[in-house]
Amino acid sequence: MFQGKGNGPLRTAVLLNAALALRAAERAEDLREGLVPAEGALDRGAWAVPEDYVVFT
């Protein structure tokens, strides 16, 4: 899942959580805007390495 693989409800939950975090951090105007970088990071596997996560956020 965190290596750019997987679909379904778990992926949706992770993406929504990331989008909400971006919105809360005022890095996105709304959830839709937060989903774009969240999905890109998840697809690239950026969540697998803590340094990439820190750079992303």
Q: How does the major sheet shape up? A: none
Return Rg in Å: 10 Å
N-to-C series of helices and strands: HHH
In DSSP terms (H or I, runs of 4 or more residues), the helix count works out at 3
Low-pLDDT stretches: none
Number of domains: 1
Q: Say how many strands there are.
A: 0
**Proportion in helices:** 55-70%
- How far is the N terminus from the C terminus? 19 Å
What does the overall shape look like?
Answer: globular
Mean pLDDT: 81
Percentage beta strand? under 5%
- Class inferred from helices and paired strands: mainly alpha
Structure characterization notes:
The model has no long low-confidence stretch (mean pLDDT 81). The chain has one domain (9-56). The protein has 57 residues and is mostly helical. It has helices at 9-24, 31-44, 50-56. Helix 1 (9-24) crosses helix 2. The protein is globular and about 25 Å long. The chain has three helices and no strands.
List the helices and strands and how they pair.
Blueprint: H1 9-24, H2 31-44, H3 50-56
Helix pairs in contact: 1-2
Summary of the model, kept short:
The protein is mainly alpha-helical.
Q: Which tags fit this structure?
A:
57 residues, 65% helix, mainly alpha
